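User: Here's a chain of 210 residues. Predict its fold as tokens.
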Amino acid sequence: MTEWAEITTVAELEAVVGTPGERAAGKERSALTEIDRAWLAASPFCMLATADAEGRCDASPKGDPAGQLVHVLDEQTIALAERPGNRRVDGYRNVIVNPYVGLNFVIPGRADTLRINGRARLVTDAPFFDELAVRARRPILALVVEIETIFFHCGKAFLRSQLWDPETWAPEALVPRRAVIAQELEPQPDKTLAELDDYYRPENYAKGLY
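Assistant: Prediction complete.
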């Protein structure tokens, strides 16, 4: 590590990567446009980034059918539904002590993404919960985000990764299947591999989504 050339100042960072051009530097907004609303309505997936009081970070995936992932309350406020899961809620624990969040909304097949940064709070009930219902089930809580900045991010990361190219998809070619990961890395002494395979079978696992 002593031979590494490390960056420790903003000036050193800018000397390596440069500074953003006028278009990139000035594209942040503080309120939703009609294009932003259309993107949110078409997005079935986003990543939620949070940090705790000491700055330790978490990034959690959130997904729902397009049109039901996000509820727009007004031009500067959105809400995301929380569905049944493993109950770790690492990101929500962070929000309680540090309300600042980052969101990145993805549309399958699109290389660009929509980024939203702001302050969040947790809500256990509100009239808009009815509009976030999926399969007649209301969310167990919602993350309400007051937007501070919003902007579109270019698609180079998705293009470099070939994320949407089916020819690059080989989900079990290099890593074990989900049941093997669960058996080896997650404490489940009462489950055999066959039982875990059955549990994670798509038609069975989907029964607990809502």
